[in-house]
Amino acid sequence: MEHCLHSACHVYVLIIGEMAYDTTFVAEAKKVCDGLHVNILPHQIPLIIKEEKINLIFGSLSASNEASYVPVLEEVKANYPLIKMILFLQSERLMFLDEILSLRCERYLSMKKERENALFHLNESVKKFTDDVFLAERHYFQTLLDFSIVSQTDVDGNITYVNDNFIKVCGYTEDELLGKNHRIVRHPNTPIYVFEQMWQTITQGKVWRGQIVNRNKNGSDFWAETMIIPFKEKQSQKILQYLSIRHDITPFLEKEKLSNEIKRKALEQEHLSDAKDAFLILFTHELKTPLNAILNFAQYLYKHMPNIDDVPKEKRLYLLEQIYKSASSMLENVTNILDLGKLRHDKLHYTMTLFSVKEAILDVIEKHGALSLEYKRRMLFKDDGNEPFITSDEYRFKQILSNVLSNAIKYGTFTVEVFLLVRSDVIEVVIQDDGKGIKDKEEVFELYNKSSSAQSSREKKGTGIGLHFVKLLCEGLNFEYQLEDSTTLGGTKFTLRKRLKEQRND
Prior knowledge:
kinase; 16 helices; EC 2.7.13.3; five-stranded antiparallel β-sheet
């Protein structure tokens, strides 16, 4: 693929000394190199070299200024060792021969014998410099290609060359690739705008760089750091071909992905550990409160058993009712924890039956009557006159409503409303309260999270698992759910939806 290696090599020359006065020579020298600078004042040489890219200093030392030229050229050689020098010497008038020889110029020529051939020597020097640079660039470029995944295409993107690395990575043979469009390795998931941007760049003669995923013959993917270089004809600047140089970064990305996954899991475990600690504190409190009530009330009744008739019947019934309610609360919390564990590990089984949605709602409301009295909340139920039936797990459906309704009672202020609405294609159950609302409406459904609006310990009335349990049950039973601000009561509004079209397809 030598045709893609030839690039323009520019040579910039500085003419010094007496030759700088020769206008004919200077005019011809301009045709030989890409850039020519002329200097007759030695002290200006460092400034020219600093401001311009000079590859070769060519010329003679003026006899009158020889003492000025030598130290300046010594400075240039020390600061710019890659600049080459070719000097014409007038041997009969040299005063600083040792100093001039210590410059270690590429060549020393006799002014007397070679002056007439100065243009020839300049042309040969420029050509040699060009060849040397080209060979060096070719060596480094070829080394780059040997360790890269390389392909070459015509201006339409049809493959004209691939190296062995390209064949090894993509899995196609050379015969399967040559003549085919480069889209043969395009990944279908890469957005079209990536290629549009790439073509817009390279058709303007600019180099395009980017990370892009490719598809191998066997269907596997590989990520590559890609550079596409347009090669242009020197005179017309017309694009002749494109060279693509890739480096496979798939292993690096996989290691980075693995590292990020390890970090993510470590952070997740840390958060989970913190959340579990917080949960244990909350859950212990939730168990301790009803357990204390059970122990205290049971102990009271036990102590008064010999004279139980002395304890008013109403008080006995109240104490037994509190024991029953406390035990039921504990059982509900423990059951939720056990069910949550099963649900998170896909081990919870559903029992699907056809049941009345309205009757299920009324049953949940009735069971929360004691809780509403305890918190002094008024519960209202409203429907639109319809009595829909759905096929689902009735027990789990009631668990969803129970968790949401208990939160509405605990976090409300005075009123909790429950609505049953039926439209042509959906059943909606709405539970809303007149409390302070919830700020983090998404996070509150995650495990052990509770609303950030509940700031004081008095307001933290739950274990933080209820709404996460609701979320998992809704996902498992194909219910839609939404938490938003209540526009009528000012608190929180929870909406549970079941689409009837899905119901009929079951």
